[in-house]
Amino acid sequence: MADPCIGDSVSVEGGIPTSDKIERLRSLRFTTTPVKVRAIFNIYLTVIGVRRPFASQEHVPLCYPEVVLCVEIYHNKTSSKKTQEFLVLGSQILSDLRDNIYCLTDKLMQTAGQHDPSGYFLIENTFCNDLRDPSATDYSLPIFDWLKNSKNEATEKWEVITSGELKKMQKELLGHADASNFPNFKSVYMHKTRFSDLQFRLGAGYLYCHQGNCKHTIVVRDMRLVHPEDAQNGADYPLLTFQIQPRYRKCEVCKIFQATKMTVDDKWAEKNPCYFCIKCYFLLHYKEDGSLLYPHSVFDYYHE
Ligand SMILES: [Zn+2]
Ligand SMILES: [Zn+2]
């Protein structure tokens, strides 16, 4: 995915590690294993842009009995691809999880100056809206309006949805299949709702929506009590236990360096879109005096 700009873009982020990061990576060779793993994780998360590092310096004691949930986040486009997995505490507020979800769309919208702090989780029939930022909008409002103004259409759609497996399951569980049992949707504030306040089913797919229409399936995979082998510092949660490694493209020209620019409908490029490292891009699109060789559309490229 990429960020749009036309012809004259010179600011490039991500991709090639800075000398500072290389130095930090080198120094890890001389540390002990647990610190090493943690430090590498921290650097890696910083590079890909996950907002909160792996572990915190502060100590927040856990209140027993405490529940731990294993929450999976899936890719917005490849819905079967798990991108992250967290351990979250039952007493934790939902916005803590949101702040740790990494999605490239956030970065692209930020670079384009169109970042929208709004977002929601839809868990069972509850919209958990993130309205912490004064400029955030309540994404659930138009949905509630539609449910109110188009009740027949909504009921019809619900009946279609529940006419398959769900209806069969309902019949098995309740002894009858009540298709008119339209859910009674409600909305709450994300930052005032704890996981333990919600009703959810393990393994069911719920929704995380942000940046207008970027949607991810989220799944609560497991739920259990905290045990002594878990991290005992409450500040370490949500604890990232899995992070998919992003796929980076190489430059189509030198085939050596990581691509950081992508051109579209570029008349001299071999492919469309075509990916370039920063050196090859400037070499092929700008004259020595820095003036543009020919007009073209170019985007910053981060990763797949
Ligand atoms: Zn997203
Ligand atoms: Zn190159």
Architecture blueprint of SSEs:
Elements: E1 2-6, H1 19-27, H2 33-48, E2 67-74, E3 82-89, H3 94-98, H4 104-111, E4 119-123, E5 126-129, H5 140-149, H6 151-161, H7 165-174, E6 186-189, E7 205-210, E8 214-225, E9 239-243, E10 261-264, E11 274-276, H8 278-285, E12 297-301
Parallel strand pairs: 5-6
Antiparallel strand pairs: 1-12, 2-3, 2-8, 3-9, 4-5, 4-7, 7-8, 10-11, 10-12
Report on this structure.
It is a single chain. With 304 residues, the chain is of the alpha+beta class. It folds into two domains: 2-9 and 249-301, no CATH class; 61-243, Structural Genomics Hypothetical 15.5 Kd Protein In mrcA-pckA Intergenic Region, Chain A, CATH 3.10.290. 25% of the residues lie in helices and 23% in strands. It has helices at residues 19-27, 33-48, 94-98, 104-111, 140-149, 151-161, 165-174, 278-285; strands at residues 2-6, 67-74, 82-89, 119-123, 126-129, 186-189, 205-210, 214-225, 239-243, 261-264, 274-276, 297-301. The strands form two sheets. The protein has an eight-stranded mixed sheet with strand order 6-5-4-7-8-2-3-9, with no helix packed on it. It has a four-stranded antiparallel sheet with strand order 1-12-10-11. The protein binds zinc ion (ZN) (2 copies). The site of one zinc ion has 8 residues, from helix 8. InterPro entries: snRNA-activating_su3. This is snRNA-activating protein complex subunit 3. It comes from Asparagus officinalis. Keywords: DNA-binding, Nucleus, Transcription, Transcription regulation.
